[in-house]
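Open question from group meeting: does this chain pack into something compact, or does most of it stay loose? Before anyone orders reagents, we agreed to write out a predicted structure and look at it together. Recording both the input and the output here so the notebook holds the full record.
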Amino acid sequence: MALDGFFGVSFDTMFTNNMPNLNASCTQWGVPDDSQQEIADVQNGIQQIANDTGVDASYILAIMRRGESRLRPRSDNKLGSKESWPDA
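C-alpha cells returned:
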C-alpha cells in the first residue's frame, strides 16, 4: 500500500492544514502577517523543489515548519534581516 505524501497525508492537505498559522502568526511579534502572495510563492516553490529533487513536498514543508510557524522567521539580530534591507 503506497502512502499519500511523506507522512501519509498529501502536500495539499498538509499545506491547507497549516493555513491558519500562516495567515495569522506574525502579529504577535509586531510585524505584518505573511501575505497571500508570499504564501502562494512558498507553496509553489516547495512543489518546484520537490519536482526538481524528487524529495516529497510534504517532507520539505515539514522541515520548513519545524522551526517556525510563519514564513518570515523572527530575528533578534537585525543584521542581515529583511528589516535591515534598504528597500524593505
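Observations to bring back to the group:
Residues 84-88 have pLDDT under 50 and may be disordered.
Residues 35-66 form one domain.
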